[in-house]
Write a structure and sequence with these properties.
By secondary structure, this protein is of the alpha/beta class. It has 13 helices and nine strands. It has a seven-stranded mixed beta sheet with strand order 1-7-6-5-4-2-3, sandwiched between helices. Bound molecules: pyridoxal-5'-phosphate. The site of pyridoxal-5'-phosphate has 14 residues, from helix 3 and helix 4.
């Protein structure tokens, strides 16, 4: 018999036309369509307040990947030097290192936080045969990262640190320890993210000089005159993307409340059904939200869970596949031992989560997971 359920892994919901329209009308009136126009400037200023940052510390970009690349380029590091990167990330992270002339060097993560921790990195760096000029710390699926620790690490070691918090729109604005500091933070506004606008990214850093260089690099290298000092690219946000962003900000507090209630339902259901037998930084806090629910059942293979759920009409996914180092494109890059990454690559499964997901669907997912885990 055909399964009646058909629960997708996600169904993004961006601001509807009625909320964007007033901003589109402003664009029609302004006749200014890109190049840091009035809507983009307004969006950036509202984001500065939102992240509790000073003027000039927030920049919007065309997408997160371009933002990562331009920020790494703004560090102005020796070509061919190593950039330490967790293999446990989306492939945009190492791609940005390569695009900025650095060589990705894959390192492992902590089994509790699913992120790189500064204490371990200090030890691991001793094993890297060559110059480490930078590293990208990745927030796993939006979990908060202690930014002060990384500012201290960067000052002590001289290594430039970029924080890839692609899914961290909420945690980096609400969790005090994750408030952006000097080390730049990138947040993606891709349609799949909790604060989605289609395509777009945000770069945040209290280092105003760095931010000015990033702004030049996303605008071909222009810095106020027609003479170019640094060869840049075009990664500016258009006024149309800013219009969606402004509408999304208007709606955010309502949407966050809805996401939070749904996340709580997942947290409580997992606690009731599985207790400590499931690991997931996402389930540890209802203070921040992101658009993906990832969990690891230590004794089960994620691919088997994905297949079993599919039979019941539930779409599940290994969002970060088997880690970047297992992709042919990245397998040739140097790496240290990656035991935690390998375990998470085998066991982490992404479950359905959408802002308008009925609670009954969450119950159905949990019920089926329980059947799978009992076997
Ligand atoms: C960890 C991580 N880094 C970078 C990106 C790239 O962001 P964007 O899609 O905005 O280019 C993503 C996108 O999902 C991501 O998950």
């Amino acid at each position: 018999m055909k399964n009646p359920k058909n629960i997708p892994i996600m169904r993004p919901l961006l601001p509807e036309a009625q909320y964007i329209l007033p901003y589109l009308e402003k664009i029609d009136k302004n006749r200014w369509y890109s190049n840091f126009g009035p809507l983009t400037v307004d969006f950036q200023q509202r984001l500065e307040k939102f992240f509790d940052m000073e003027p000039g510390t927030v920049l919007t970009v065309a997408n997160g990947t371009a933002g990562l690349t331009s920020t790494l380029r703004a560090f102005d590091l020796p070509k061919g030097s190593f950039c330490l990167i967790p293999s446990w990330t989306f492939m945009a992270t190492p791609a940005s290192a390569i695009a900025s002339g650095l060589v990705p060097y894959f390192i492992d993560i902590s089994k509790d936080s699913w992120a790189i921790e500064p204490e371990s990195v200090k030890e691991w760096i001793k094993k890297v045969p060559g110059m480490v000029s930078a590293m990208i710390v990745v927030s796993p699926f939006g979990a908060p990262i202690d930014t002060i620790k990384w500012d201290t690490f960067s000052t002590e070691t001289g290594i430039k640190v970029l924080i890839d918090a692609a899914a961290g729109f909420d945690s980096f604005s609400t969790i005090p320890k994750a408030k952006p500091g000097k080390c730049p933070v990138m947040i993606s506004m891709h349609a799949t993210k909790v604060f989605g606008i289609g395509e777009g990214g945000i770069i945040i850093s209290s280092d105003i000089n760095l931010m000015q260089r990033v702004q030049e690099l996303i605008n071909f290298g222009f810095s106020g005159t027609r003479e170019i000092q640094l060869p840049g690219t075009n990664a500016k946000m258009s006024e149309y993307a800013a219009a969606v962003g402004l509408a999304a900000l208007d709606l955010w507090s309502h949407k966050k409340a809805v996401w939070t209630r749904l996340k709580l339902h997942y947290i409580e259901s997992f606690r009731d059904c599985f207790g400590d037998s499931v690991s997931s930084p996402w389930l540890l806090s209802d203070e921040w939200v992101s658009s993906v629910c990832n969990v690891s059942f230590p004794k089960l293979m994620a691919k088997d869970i994905v297949a079993a759920l599919k039979n019941q009409g539930i779409e599940a996914k290994q969002w970060w596949t088997r880690g970047c180092h297992n992709h042919p494109a990245y397998a040739k890059f140097p790496q240290l031992e990656l035991p935690v990454t390998e375990t998470l690559a085998d066991t982490v499964v992404g479950l359905p989560f959408s802002i308008d997901m009925p609670r009954a669907d969450i119950d159905y997912v949990i019920e089926n997971l329980r059947n799978i885990t009992i076997i």
